[in-house]
Amino acid sequence: MNNIGILKKKRLRAAAFVDYEHWYISMEKIYGKKPDIGAWVNMINERADVREITFFADFSNESLNKEISKIREYTNRIVETKNPNPYSEKDFTDFIMLDSLYQKAFADDKTDVFILFTGDAHFNSVAAYLKTICRKQVGIYGVKGAFSNQLKATASWWVELPTETDILKPYYDMILKNLRYLEMSSDKNSKITFRNTVQTVADHCAADKSKIQIALQSLIDNGYIQRIARKNGRQAEYSIKPDWEKLSADGLWVSDDSSGNIFIKKSSADAKDVSAESKPAKPNKQQKNKKYFAKKRSR
Known about the structure:
By secondary structure, this protein is of the alpha/beta class. The protein folds into 2 domains: 11-162 and 286-295, 5'-nuclease (Rossmann fold, 3-Layer(aba) Sandwich); 168-265, Orthogonal Bundle (Arc Repressor Mutant, subunit A), CATH 1.10.10. Helix content is 43%, strand content 17%. It has a 6-stranded parallel beta sheet with strand order 3-2-1-4-5-6, sandwiched between helices. A two-stranded antiparallel sheet has the order 7-8. Helix 8 (164-184) packs across helix 9.
Protein backbone atom coordinates (compact mmCIF):
# COMPACT_ATOMS: atom_id res chain seq x y z
CA MET A 1 0.00 0.00 0.00
CA ASN A 2 1.32 3.44 -0.96
CA ASN A 3 1.25 5.65 2.13
CA ILE A 4 3.02 8.62 0.60
CA GLY A 5 -0.18 10.49 -0.10
CA ILE A 6 -1.46 10.21 3.44
CA LEU A 7 1.71 11.22 5.23
CA LYS A 8 1.36 14.52 7.01
CA LYS A 9 3.74 17.28 6.08
CA LYS A 10 6.20 17.92 8.87
CA ARG A 11 5.63 21.26 10.57
CA LEU A 12 8.56 23.63 10.76
CA ARG A 13 9.99 24.24 14.22
CA ALA A 14 9.99 27.85 15.34
CA ALA A 15 11.22 30.15 18.08
CA ALA A 16 9.66 33.57 18.71
CA PHE A 17 11.31 36.71 20.07
CA VAL A 18 9.12 39.63 21.17
CA ASP A 19 10.16 43.25 21.64
CA TYR A 20 7.28 43.89 23.99
CA GLU A 21 8.11 47.57 24.38
CA HIS A 22 7.51 48.06 20.65
CA TRP A 23 4.28 46.11 20.76
CA TYR A 24 2.82 47.61 23.94
CA ILE A 25 3.84 51.23 23.46
CA SER A 26 3.01 51.39 19.73
CA MET A 27 -0.43 49.84 20.24
CA GLU A 28 -1.20 52.25 23.06
CA LYS A 29 0.02 55.37 21.28
CA ILE A 30 -1.43 54.66 17.83
CA TYR A 31 -4.61 52.71 18.62
CA GLY A 32 -5.27 53.25 22.32
CA LYS A 33 -5.31 49.47 22.83
CA LYS A 34 -3.23 46.82 24.54
CA PRO A 35 -1.66 43.76 22.88
CA ASP A 36 -3.82 40.65 22.51
CA ILE A 37 -1.14 38.11 23.37
CA GLY A 38 -3.44 35.08 23.16
CA ALA A 39 -4.68 35.90 19.66
CA TRP A 40 -1.10 36.39 18.46
CA VAL A 41 0.09 33.11 19.99
CA ASN A 42 -2.70 31.34 18.11
CA MET A 43 -1.60 33.04 14.89
CA ILE A 44 2.01 31.94 15.12
CA ASN A 45 1.08 28.40 16.13
CA GLU A 46 -0.94 28.11 12.92
CA ARG A 47 2.17 28.98 10.92
CA ALA A 48 4.68 26.70 12.65
CA ASP A 49 5.46 24.40 15.57
CA VAL A 50 6.49 27.11 18.03
CA ARG A 51 8.71 25.56 20.69
CA GLU A 52 9.59 28.70 22.65
CA ILE A 53 8.53 32.34 22.97
CA THR A 54 10.70 34.95 24.71
CA PHE A 55 9.52 38.44 25.71
CA PHE A 56 11.98 41.32 26.13
CA ALA A 57 11.23 44.66 27.83
CA ASP A 58 12.19 47.07 30.58
CA PHE A 59 9.58 45.83 33.01
CA SER A 60 10.63 48.33 35.66
CA ASN A 61 8.14 50.62 33.95
CA GLU A 62 4.88 50.42 35.89
CA SER A 63 2.61 49.90 32.87
CA LEU A 64 4.74 47.14 31.39
CA ASN A 65 5.22 45.48 34.78
CA LYS A 66 1.46 44.93 34.99
CA GLU A 67 1.67 42.92 31.76
CA ILE A 68 3.93 40.25 33.22
CA SER A 69 1.06 38.19 34.63
CA LYS A 70 -0.58 38.14 31.18
CA ILE A 71 2.65 37.06 29.51
CA ARG A 72 3.12 34.22 32.03
CA GLU A 73 -0.09 32.63 30.78
CA TYR A 74 1.85 31.72 27.64
CA THR A 75 5.54 31.58 28.60
CA ASN A 76 7.96 31.98 31.48
CA ARG A 77 10.73 33.17 29.17
CA ILE A 78 10.68 36.84 30.18
CA VAL A 79 13.86 38.89 29.93
CA GLU A 80 14.23 42.09 31.95
CA THR A 81 16.19 44.66 29.93
CA LYS A 82 16.41 47.52 32.40
CA ASN A 83 19.58 49.58 32.09
CA PRO A 84 21.59 48.88 35.26
CA ASN A 85 23.11 52.37 35.12
CA PRO A 86 20.68 54.76 36.85
CA TYR A 87 22.39 57.74 35.22
CA SER A 88 22.02 56.50 31.64
CA GLU A 89 18.89 56.54 29.50
CA LYS A 90 20.27 54.10 26.92
CA ASP A 91 17.73 51.48 25.89
CA PHE A 92 19.09 47.95 26.32
CA THR A 93 16.08 46.04 24.94
CA ASP A 94 17.25 45.97 21.31
CA PHE A 95 20.81 45.03 22.28
CA ILE A 96 19.76 42.13 24.54
CA MET A 97 17.20 40.80 22.07
CA LEU A 98 19.73 40.95 19.20
CA ASP A 99 22.28 39.07 21.29
CA SER A 100 19.71 36.36 22.08
CA LEU A 101 18.86 35.96 18.39
CA TYR A 102 22.48 35.50 17.35
CA GLN A 103 23.10 33.03 20.19
CA LYS A 104 20.04 31.01 19.22
CA ALA A 105 21.11 30.90 15.58
CA PHE A 106 24.62 29.75 16.56
CA ALA A 107 23.64 27.12 19.15
CA ASP A 108 20.43 25.62 17.71
CA ASP A 109 20.37 24.22 14.18
CA LYS A 110 17.00 22.52 14.66
CA THR A 111 14.98 25.74 14.60
CA ASP A 112 13.63 26.32 11.08
CA VAL A 113 11.72 29.57 11.61
CA PHE A 114 12.64 32.68 13.58
CA ILE A 115 9.57 34.76 14.41
CA LEU A 116 10.23 38.32 15.54
CA PHE A 117 7.78 40.87 16.90
CA THR A 118 9.34 44.27 16.34
CA GLY A 119 9.10 47.17 13.95
CA ASP A 120 12.58 48.49 14.60
CA ALA A 121 14.96 48.82 11.63
CA HIS A 122 17.84 47.88 13.96
CA PHE A 123 16.77 44.25 13.45
CA ASN A 124 17.29 44.40 9.69
CA SER A 125 20.85 43.06 9.92
CA VAL A 126 19.99 40.05 12.09
CA ALA A 127 16.98 39.25 9.88
CA ALA A 128 19.22 39.29 6.80
CA TYR A 129 21.83 37.13 8.59
CA LEU A 130 19.27 34.53 9.65
CA LYS A 131 17.74 34.35 6.19
CA THR A 132 20.79 34.46 3.91
CA ILE A 133 23.61 32.99 6.01
CA CYS A 134 21.74 30.58 8.29
CA ARG A 135 19.11 29.70 5.67
CA LYS A 136 16.27 30.19 8.13
CA GLN A 137 12.77 31.43 7.47
CA VAL A 138 12.26 34.82 9.12
CA GLY A 139 8.74 36.00 9.89
CA ILE A 140 8.22 39.43 11.41
CA TYR A 141 5.18 40.91 13.13
CA GLY A 142 4.96 44.65 13.76
CA VAL A 143 2.45 47.30 14.73
CA LYS A 144 0.93 49.11 11.78
CA GLY A 145 2.24 52.65 11.68
CA ALA A 146 5.44 51.72 13.56
CA PHE A 147 6.89 49.05 11.28
CA SER A 148 10.07 49.71 9.27
CA ASN A 149 9.60 49.19 5.52
CA GLN A 150 13.23 48.09 5.29
CA LEU A 151 12.57 45.38 7.86
CA LYS A 152 9.52 44.20 5.93
CA ALA A 153 11.60 43.92 2.76
CA THR A 154 14.20 41.77 4.51
CA ALA A 155 11.75 39.30 6.08
CA SER A 156 10.65 36.02 4.48
CA TRP A 157 7.13 37.12 5.38
CA TRP A 158 5.63 39.81 7.59
CA VAL A 159 2.32 40.66 9.24
CA GLU A 160 1.04 44.00 10.50
CA LEU A 161 -1.17 44.22 13.57
CA PRO A 162 -3.85 45.13 14.34
CA THR A 163 -5.57 43.60 11.33
CA GLU A 164 -8.42 45.33 9.51
CA THR A 165 -10.84 43.05 11.35
CA ASP A 166 -9.38 44.04 14.72
CA ILE A 167 -9.82 47.73 13.93
CA LEU A 168 -13.30 47.47 12.43
CA LYS A 169 -14.75 44.77 14.73
CA PRO A 170 -16.74 47.21 16.96
CA TYR A 171 -18.38 48.67 13.84
CA TYR A 172 -19.05 45.20 12.42
CA ASP A 173 -20.96 44.39 15.61
CA MET A 174 -23.15 47.50 15.32
CA ILE A 175 -23.96 46.83 11.67
CA LEU A 176 -24.76 43.15 12.14
CA LYS A 177 -27.01 43.77 15.13
CA ASN A 178 -28.96 46.29 13.10
CA LEU A 179 -29.30 43.94 10.12
CA ARG A 180 -30.36 41.07 12.38
CA TYR A 181 -33.04 43.18 13.97
CA LEU A 182 -34.42 44.29 10.60
CA GLU A 183 -34.55 40.70 9.35
CA MET A 184 -36.41 39.60 12.50
CA SER A 185 -38.82 42.55 12.53
CA SER A 186 -42.44 42.20 11.49
CA ASP A 187 -41.95 44.61 8.61
CA LYS A 188 -40.76 42.16 5.98
CA ASN A 189 -41.18 44.73 3.21
CA SER A 190 -38.65 47.15 4.63
CA LYS A 191 -35.73 47.66 2.27
CA ILE A 192 -32.30 47.15 3.77
CA THR A 193 -29.94 49.33 1.80
CA PHE A 194 -26.33 50.36 2.16
CA ARG A 195 -27.08 54.04 2.65
CA ASN A 196 -29.91 53.56 5.15
CA THR A 197 -27.86 51.08 7.18
CA VAL A 198 -24.91 53.47 7.45
CA GLN A 199 -27.12 56.37 8.52
CA THR A 200 -29.19 54.35 11.00
CA VAL A 201 -26.22 52.74 12.72
CA ALA A 202 -24.29 56.01 12.89
CA ASP A 203 -27.26 57.82 14.44
CA HIS A 204 -28.11 55.06 16.89
CA CYS A 205 -24.58 54.47 18.16
CA ALA A 206 -23.36 58.07 17.91
CA ALA A 207 -20.53 56.65 15.82
CA ASP A 208 -18.44 58.12 13.02
CA LYS A 209 -20.48 57.75 9.84
CA SER A 210 -17.37 57.35 7.67
CA LYS A 211 -16.13 54.48 9.88
CA ILE A 212 -19.49 52.70 9.61
CA GLN A 213 -19.35 53.10 5.84
CA ILE A 214 -15.81 51.67 5.68
CA ALA A 215 -16.80 48.73 7.90
CA LEU A 216 -19.92 47.91 5.86
CA GLN A 217 -17.96 48.09 2.61
CA SER A 218 -15.33 45.79 4.14
CA LEU A 219 -18.00 43.22 5.02
CA ILE A 220 -19.24 43.37 1.43
CA ASP A 221 -15.75 43.15 -0.10
CA ASN A 222 -14.96 40.08 2.02
CA GLY A 223 -18.15 38.27 1.03
CA TYR A 224 -19.95 38.53 4.37
CA ILE A 225 -22.73 40.71 2.97
CA GLN A 226 -24.19 40.50 -0.53
CA ARG A 227 -25.50 43.38 -2.60
CA ILE A 228 -28.62 42.27 -4.44
CA ALA A 229 -29.93 44.19 -7.45
CA ARG A 230 -33.65 44.43 -8.19
CA LYS A 231 -35.09 46.16 -11.23
CA ASN A 232 -37.40 49.07 -10.59
CA GLY A 233 -38.48 50.17 -14.01
CA ARG A 234 -35.38 51.16 -15.91
CA GLN A 235 -33.32 51.58 -12.79
CA ALA A 236 -31.87 49.01 -10.44
CA GLU A 237 -32.34 49.13 -6.69
CA TYR A 238 -29.73 47.55 -4.45
CA SER A 239 -30.38 45.91 -1.12
CA ILE A 240 -27.94 44.12 1.19
CA LYS A 241 -28.20 40.68 2.76
CA PRO A 242 -25.79 39.13 5.30
CA ASP A 243 -24.44 35.61 4.90
CA TRP A 244 -25.01 34.57 8.53
CA GLU A 245 -23.49 31.13 8.00
CA LYS A 246 -20.20 32.58 6.75
CA LEU A 247 -20.19 35.25 9.48
CA SER A 248 -20.69 32.57 12.14
CA ALA A 249 -18.04 30.29 10.66
CA ASP A 250 -15.46 33.08 10.79
CA GLY A 251 -16.38 34.19 14.30
CA LEU A 252 -17.90 37.56 13.38
CA TRP A 253 -21.37 36.53 14.54
CA VAL A 254 -22.38 34.27 17.40
CA SER A 255 -25.56 32.54 16.30
CA ASP A 256 -26.52 31.45 19.83
CA ASP A 257 -26.89 35.10 20.80
CA SER A 258 -28.78 36.13 17.68
CA SER A 259 -32.14 36.26 19.42
CA GLY A 260 -30.76 38.66 21.98
CA ASN A 261 -28.99 40.98 19.60
CA ILE A 262 -31.95 43.23 19.06
CA PHE A 263 -31.35 46.75 17.84
CA ILE A 264 -33.21 48.53 20.62
CA LYS A 265 -33.20 52.31 20.70
CA LYS A 266 -30.86 53.66 23.33
CA SER A 267 -31.31 56.79 25.34
CA SER A 268 -28.92 59.64 24.61
CA ALA A 269 -27.23 59.00 27.97
CA ASP A 270 -26.47 55.42 26.97
CA ALA A 271 -25.22 56.22 23.47
CA LYS A 272 -21.61 55.29 23.09
CA ASP A 273 -19.33 57.21 20.74
CA VAL A 274 -17.25 54.41 19.33
CA SER A 275 -15.54 56.76 16.91
CA ALA A 276 -13.99 58.51 19.88
CA GLU A 277 -12.83 55.19 21.30
CA SER A 278 -11.18 54.24 18.06
CA LYS A 279 -8.99 57.34 18.04
CA PRO A 280 -5.55 57.16 19.62
CA ALA A 281 -5.99 57.70 23.31
CA LYS A 282 -4.03 60.50 24.91
CA PRO A 283 -1.52 59.14 27.41
CA ASN A 284 -2.96 59.16 30.89
CA LYS A 285 0.16 58.08 32.71
CA GLN A 286 1.93 59.29 35.79
CA GLN A 287 4.62 61.92 35.20
CA LYS A 288 7.41 59.41 35.77
CA ASN A 289 6.22 57.31 32.80
CA LYS A 290 6.14 60.16 30.28
CA LYS A 291 9.90 60.36 30.01
CA TYR A 292 10.11 56.60 29.40
CA PHE A 293 7.48 56.52 26.68
CA ALA A 294 9.05 59.49 24.89
CA LYS A 295 12.43 57.82 24.41
CA LYS A 296 11.03 54.65 22.70
CA ARG A 297 10.22 55.70 19.13
CA SER A 298 9.81 53.71 15.96
CA ARG A 299 12.79 54.00 13.71
